[in-house]
Design brief:
By secondary structure, the protein is of the alpha/beta class. The protein has a single domain, classed as Glutaredoxin. 37% of the residues lie in helices and 22% in strands. It contains 5 helices and 5 strands, in the order H-E-H-E-H-H-E-H-E-E. It comes from Chryseobacterium camelliae.
C-alpha cells in the first residue's frame, strides 16, 4: 500500500460497516427508509469513500454513536456510499429538496428533512 493509499484509503481498504447502519443501495431501500420516517426519526449519512475528510467525519460520528446509550431509540441510521450509488444521492437531493454535500447527515421525520449538516458540523446532536 502506497503512502497516499494509507492517508486517503486505497482499494485494498476493507469496507467495515458498523452494525447500527442500514445500507441504502437501491431505490427500494430509500423508499423503505423514507416510509420508516413516518413512524420515527431516521438519519441518512451520505459518505464519499474516496474523501479523507468524509472518512474522518464518519469515524468521529460513529464514535459518538457507539458512546450513546440507546441510539436506536433516537433514530434509525442509514448509510449511503455516494460513490457507489450516486444516482440515489441525486434522488435524495432532488426529492427532499436538500443541496447535495459530502459528507452529509440528513435527519428526516414524516418524509421531510428536519435537520441537515455537512462536514465538521455532523454530530449526534443533529438527531435531537
Amino acid at each position: 500500500m502506497s503512502f497516499f493509499d494509507k492517508i486517503f484509503g486505497g482499494k485494498e481498504e476493507a469496507k467495515e460497516q458498523k452494525s447500527f447502519w442500514n445500507p441504502i443501495q437501491s431505490e427500494d431501500d430509500l423508499k423503505i427508509a423514507l416510509e420508516n420516517s413516518n413512524t420515527g426519526k431516521i438519519a441518512i449519512f451520505k459518505h464519499s469513500t474516496s474523501c479523507f475528510i468524509s472518512k474522518t467525519v464518519l469515524k468521529n460520528f460513529e464514535k459518538e454513536i457507539e458512546n450513546h446509550k440507546n441510539i436506536d431509540e433516537v433514530a434509525a441510521l442509514y448509510f449511503l456510499d455516494l460513490l457507489a450509488y450516486r444516482p440515489l444521492s441525486n434522488k435524495i437531493a432532488e426529492d427532499l429538496g436538500v443541496r447535495h454535500e459530502s459528507p452529509q447527515l440528513l435527519v428526516i421525520e414524516d418524509g421531510k428533512v428536519i435537520n441537515d449538516a455537512s462536514h465538521q458540523n455532523i454530530s449526534i446532536n443533529q438527531l435531537s
